[in-house]
Design goal:
6-stranded parallel sheet, 7-stranded parallel sheet, 376 residues, 39% helix, single chain, 13 strands, alpha/beta
Length: 376
Amino acid sequence: MKKKVLYLITKATWGGAQKYVFDLATHLPKDQFERVVAFGESGRLQKLLNEAKIETRQIPALGRDIALISDISSFFQILACVWRIRPDALHLNSSKAAALGALAARICRVPRIVFTVHGWPFKEDQGFIARKLIYFISWFTALLSHAIIVVSKEDVQIGKRMWFVRRKIEHIPIALKTSEEIFSKALAEKILFFGDSENPVFKSKCRLVTIAELTKNKGLQYGIEMMEELEKRSPGTYTYTIFGEGEDLANLQNRARKLQNPLTVFFRSIETNRPPNLSAEASRYLSAFGIFILPSIKEGMPYVLLEAAVAGLPIVATDVVKAEASNIPNIHFVPPGDSNALADAVEKLAHNLPARKPCAIGSFPDMLEKTLALYN
């Protein structure tokens, strides 16, 4: 008899956690598993799952922000979903869905509860009381789970310091399932810049790029401030393109408009139904850029670093990923929240760009095998 696996995630938009759920759900052996994905906010993940013929369930009340009334409602909706599906394994992703889902799963006596930590949420910049509350919720979720997957070495150490949780921690690094075709530099430029040689990005000597969900944790405001500093030092030399969508888009666009030269920062959607018809995987266009920027102030281990490594781009990243990403070639670390340090590292790299050396990091079959073992 096939095992039934239910994946639960707060948002079915598109980011690292969503890619993780999609890759796992679409690669479970069909002869062994039935797959269902439940989520709150709909988005691109839902569309891709529907195209892949994977059953989805929406939980309307489930949202990212804490709100007492809707959280109570979403808990009972999750409880009803788990009760109806009766999964053999519930795989939890994202903090809020995980906390509510773990409790619902225990009430419904789900045989296996697996919780993937894509970065402990209490590492975020919060007040003392908020951090303590989020820590307790994270610990309680881990306590209710049978196994906890962490994707970064730093989060392993944090998890192993939690009471009664240490033995449940499993370090399973993320990996790309396959290397997406990376477009040639000429083709990527043609699609991105509409073949317009007067486009400021096309004309710039050094193009910087970030791929991220647009949230405060990604530190993109420091990337924008980095551009202000670089423009002061070397006017007209650098441009910065940010691929992504998210709740902080309007704020970031407003910050960019206030730059002395706002034409140095550009925002691109990765939705396939929007011009210039970008691929679902923005990483396919990395050949059009010179340096990848990861300005995050809080991370687990993001897929985008693996994608930048496959494209052979040099990387400037904050040291929140240093423990996990030090083995990536041509990666340079700076402190988080420091736009001047980002600018210094970019300037140093730009003066002597290393030759591109594409490098694949990690093994998806190994990641999949270790994860499936936790469903039994």
